[in-house]
């Protein structure tokens, strides 16, 4: 959700009156808030009756303000995240002048509004921190770094469970420079990590952990750990890590906060290390902490609760479009480079078994080791472990499937195979014939 600011601009839906219909799909209700180039409305899905939030964005304001890349990146990031504690993007619609983001409605409002009324009990702090770290760890596993975590960007659903929102300042793995660091200065002053202030590059995951530490302090204390009317004085406190816990803070929480707010990013606690911390361990649900490698979650593609729960589930048009390797929003926002996806995906009309056999055949011809896993899933390995790839197939409709390939490929020694890529030079060309073209007949057996 956007940061809500008072603004005189008019960016809403046609007529901006309750009861308007957006493309015959959503009945638009009251205005929830407005930002510099967007308005957010309560709406109802006409078909299902589900309440949603619709963010209406002015194309003209986005282009004039130079925010096209930010909007593209936010959409690209949100459509790849499917987690119980991240705000979900359902659909993107567009007209000649506006873009509409149809999102999950967080009926409970901002976490900030609740903590502003008074600090939380330690157990309630722990509950929300578990949910926050579950979401943040998931995002990091997907190569997404939020970079603006704060209570204002943490929303609550109707069960008062946490939803991480506002990915407008997020970074993705391909933005990391050759030195292994991110360099863009961003974030909210009171929540920014000391290494960002040092302007020497930073690890996106570790700055998110720092911000989580500030959030936990705010929830338990009711005020900021680093605060001063003079911005430079506040920055000096952050840089030196000067904060003091209130007297009611338990020894275990004090120790945990000291590890979260460690000014040295190299020794700052990680998500994995949190799982062994005495304060964090109490009451946490291990199922919430999802570990990801080159395998794929069904819920990312289908929202399925279990591996066998696939029948009758189809994706909407936005989901199908977003699965193509050429996904971008240029048609909606105009020219400009977007954020490249890490995984390559394509839609195919071939039967899953035939696709698996084609991939295995191509991999074996390239001298790779192939291991077929449960269902329509294959793991490939070659070049002495320098190349590892996972492929997963899931059904979109009765006739179509989506194929997702994620790979990790290290550089090969130049004197051995100069400029050679197993994926680009060997495997990918042999799979191009599997891609479904909309005007071609669908194979039916």
CATH class of the largest domain: Mainly Alpha
What's the mean pLDDT score? 77
**Helices and strands: which structural class?**
alpha+beta
Show unreliable segments.
1-12, 14-18, 287-342, 411-418, 440-445
Give the CATH superfamily of the largest domain: Transferase(Phosphotransferase) domain 1
The major beta sheet can be summarized as: 6 strands, antiparallel
- CATH architectural arrangement of the largest domain: Orthogonal Bundle
How many E strands? 16
- Strand adjacency order, main sheet: 1-2-3-4-6-5
Radius of gyration: 23 Å
Total separate domains: 3
Number of helices: 15
In which range does the helix fraction lie?
25-40%
Please tell me what the overall shape is. Answer: globular
CATH topology of the largest domain: Transferase(Phosphotransferase), domain 1
State the end-to-end distance: 45 Å
Percent strand equals 15-25%
Family: Belongs to the protein kinase superfamily. CAMK Ser/Thr protein kinase family. SNF1 subfamily.
Catalytic activity: L-seryl-[protein] + ATP = O-phospho-L-seryl-[protein] + ADP + H(+); L-threonyl-[protein] + ATP = O-phospho-L-threonyl-[protein] + ADP + H(+)
InterPro entries: Kinase-like_dom_sf (IPR011009), NAF/FISL_domain (IPR018451), NAF_dom (IPR004041), Prot_kinase_dom (IPR000719), Protein_kinase_ATP_BS (IPR017441), Ser/Thr_kinase_AS (IPR008271)
Protein name: non-specific serine/threonine protein kinase
């Amino acid at each position: 959700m956007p940061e809500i600011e008072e603004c005189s601009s008019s960016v809403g839906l046609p007529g901006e009156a309750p009861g308007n219909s957006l493309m015959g799909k959503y009945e638009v209700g009251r205005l929830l808030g407005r930002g510099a180039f967007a308005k957010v409305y309560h709406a109802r899905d006409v078909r299902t009756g589900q309440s949603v939030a619709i963010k209406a964005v002015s194309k003209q304001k986005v282009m004039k303000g130079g925010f096209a890349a930010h909007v593209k990146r936010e959409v690209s990031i949100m459509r790849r995240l499917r987690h119980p504690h991240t705000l979900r993007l359902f659909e993107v619609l567009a007209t000649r002048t506006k873009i509409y983001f149809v999102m999950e409605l967080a009926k409970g409002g901002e976490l900030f509004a609740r903590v502003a009324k008074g600090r939380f009990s330690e157990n309630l702090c722990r509950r929300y921190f578990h949910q926050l770290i579950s979401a943040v760890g998931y995002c990091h596993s997907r190569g997404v770094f939020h970079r603006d975590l704060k209570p204002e960007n943490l929303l609550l659903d109707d069960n008062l469970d946490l939803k991480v929102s506002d990915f407008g300042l997020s970074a993705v793995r391909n933005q990391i420079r050759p030195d292994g660091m991110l360099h863009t200065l961003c974030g909210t002053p009171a929540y920014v990590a000391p290494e960002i202030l040092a302007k020497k590059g930073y690890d996106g995951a570790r700055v998110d952990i720092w911000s989580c530490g500030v959030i936990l302090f705010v929830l338990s204390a009711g005020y900021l750990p680093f605060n001063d009317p003079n911005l430079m004085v506040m920055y000096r406190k952050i840089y030196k890590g000067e904060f003091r816990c209130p007297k009611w803070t338990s020894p275990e929480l004090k120790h945990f906060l000291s590890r979260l707010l460690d000014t040295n990013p190299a020794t700052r606690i990680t998500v994995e290390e949190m799982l062994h911390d005495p304060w964090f361990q109490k009451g946490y649900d291990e199922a919430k902490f999802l570990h990801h490698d080159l395998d794929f979650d069904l819920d990312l593609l289908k929202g399925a609760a279990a591996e066998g729960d696939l029948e009758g589930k189809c994706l909407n048009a936005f989901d199908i479009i977003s699965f193509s390797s050429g996904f971008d929003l240029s048609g909606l926002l105009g020219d400009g480079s977007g954020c490249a996806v890490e995984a390559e995906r394509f839609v195919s009309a071939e039967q899953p078994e035939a696709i698996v056999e084609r991939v295995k055949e191509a991999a074996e011809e390239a001298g790779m080791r192939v291991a077929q896993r449960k269902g329509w899933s294959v793991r490939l390995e070659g070049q002495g472990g320098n190349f590892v790839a996972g492929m997963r197939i899931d059904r979109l409709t009765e006739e179509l499937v989506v194929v997702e390939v994620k790979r990790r490929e290290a550089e090969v020694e130049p004197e051995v195979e100069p400029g050679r890529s197993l994926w680009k030079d060997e495997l990918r060309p042999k799979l191009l014939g599997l891609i479904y073209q909309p005007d071609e007949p669908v194979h039916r057996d």
